[in-house]
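Troubleshooting entry. Yesterday's outputs looked truncated, so today I'm pasting the complete records for two proteins to confirm everything comes through intact. If either block looks cut off, that's the bug. Protein one:
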Amino acid sequence: MNPFKERQLLLSFLTRKIFSNYHLLVRPIVSSMLVKELFTKLCVISGIISRIVWGILYITTI
């Protein structure tokens, strides 16, 4: 068997393997990315809210 043919077979085998496990691999990654994104948005929103609150408190104390 020539090495090119072997490599092609290996590649096709690997791609089949990856695609069969695709949903198992991708789902947790995507969910963790979504969680991270939501967390950063929450942090930004809470930061903005705290700034507004501190601004109001600062204005009312003057």
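Protein two, checking that the full record survives here as well:
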Amino acid sequence: MDTADSPQSSNHTFGDAGSSWRMAKLKRVKETAAEEGVPEEVIGEERFGSIEKYKEALAEKKELDRRMSRKSDRRSDKRDDRDSRRDDRRRDDHKRKDRDERDRRDDRDKRHKESRHHDDKHRRDREDRDDRDKRRNTGSSSSRDGDSPYESTHRDRDEKPRSKSGRLSEFSSAASSPFQRPMDEQERQAKELARRAKEKEREKEQEKRYTPIPSPFATHVSSPAHSQTPEPTITPAQLNKVKAKAIRAKMMGLPDADALEKEYEDAQKTIAEAVSRPPPEPQRVVVVQTMGRPSSGSASPVYGLRPGPGNSKQHGKPKKEATHDEQGNRVAYQGEEGDLDLQEMLRREKMGLGEDMDQELARRITRDTVFKDDNDYMDDNADKIARTVKKTDEQLKNAAIFDHRKTQTALDNCAMCFKDEGRVQPQMAVVSMGNRVYLGLPLYKEFLPGHCLIVPAQHVTSTLELDDDAWDEIRNFMKCLIQMNAAQDKAMIFTETVINLKWQKHTVIECIPIPWEAGRAAPGYFKEAILSADEEWSQHKKLIETDAKLASNGGFRRRLTPKMPFFHVWLGSPDKGYGHVIEDADQFSDYFAKEVLASICEMDSTQWQRRNGKRIPASENPRRVKDFQKSWKPWDWTQSLEEAEAGNSGGK
């Protein structure tokens, strides 16, 4: 019987969600035993709780190794078959190429023979024709001198049976015959004029074909006196606050929802009228391009492209300019920064239009195969590392278009964003709405009862990109959920997983309640799992403690950066947890946190994995929200916002 299918005494199967965690623990048991010189059974009994569980882990490792060996054998057989088929295809290709080359050679020889035969025949016909012309001239002169009519007639009869090819050759060579009508002066002048006209037309076509095309991306700057748009009577921040109040009132069924919606529409009309008001004089069109850092859900900054002379494509190797004088002092810069003056650099930095310095430095270091992380190397190779490749306007335009399309696709397909300026709610069930963050329910089957999500209203790839106001709302939701579940004898685990920033996926914080006893063991489980995650050798510290109470730590927002993928878990408090920098997205599972929690709660993987379930229909969202609010309503901190807004509207 296969051990993978047999039931285990510890209520788990070989290769389930907790298998990787058990194998990591078994590996550390062997390492500890080797370091301390203690038998593995003693360490295994201590770590696993009993010698039976330790032996089960050994049996599971043996079974997994057997499966891996069987998979590798199958892969080897498939690889051999693939190599054999590839060799057969190569041999067939060589045979086919040889056959085609032989056929081409035979055709070439055949055409050469036919051409030579045709030339020989043409030469013989020309010689025969010349001989006949000579005889005709001689005969006519002799006839005039006294030949008899019989001889003349006999000679003419002998000359009549000419071959068809001879007649054709005669007509075809008539143009080259020396006995042609001489060309008069008018015909010669007409042909010369026609030839000159054709040459002029050809020169015009050449000029049209190679004339540089003016760049359509030159920025036209209009006069500052006429380029200013009248300021609207309400700011965008005030408009956003009015819209947030209207959405929250509509969701909660407050009586002033219609009034707030009307106030928002009036404010929007006011801004539209101010923007659409015609200027005193017509403005010139300014062509701009999206540039700057890759967007994380919001549009990138825009500015005009540099005016170009046309087709700026250069042929050959670019000329290398000197950057230092004889004394070693810098006199010029290479690349794009050499064309920028100080004001342009300052403008780009102020508006956030410059490149991301961290990503640019990392990109240049990866191109340097002999890079060394020390000050001497950085000083000696500063120019090499800082050298950039100058991009053309066409490349900048294509990059901006691609970034805009990618961002727009991510926003259109996002199930957690408000669409159509807040008129269309997210596809997920919304429980409570703050000003910048809301509490929702999962789109798929809950991991455990009470599973919910803290979602930023803005489309961001990580919560590290949010401002202090949004983070305060996240902490308020965390504190209220901790108090609500503590009253039910449960512990709260909060996790955020950002695997790949290029996906531009809307980030969420998953809030999962687990039994209180399991919550006490959670820190040890997560610490062990994070230390075993990713590769054995990594550039970053595997386990990053984010305790905000420690002076040397600074908490989650100071210890991690939004420019790198990461995983973070909060263990029962918004100020304490563990972080991990994800270096290889392929090696890190999107279900990492749930795998660890499944091991703690001894759950089967088929009970919670999303791939084994379908998305919950939107028709069930009202019922789910109502069931969740039975426990959540006494702890809902957003009610104070609603009461304050209701008081303000009543005072008006």
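Both blocks look complete. Sanity check on protein two: The CA atoms of residues 13 and 147 lie 126 Å apart.
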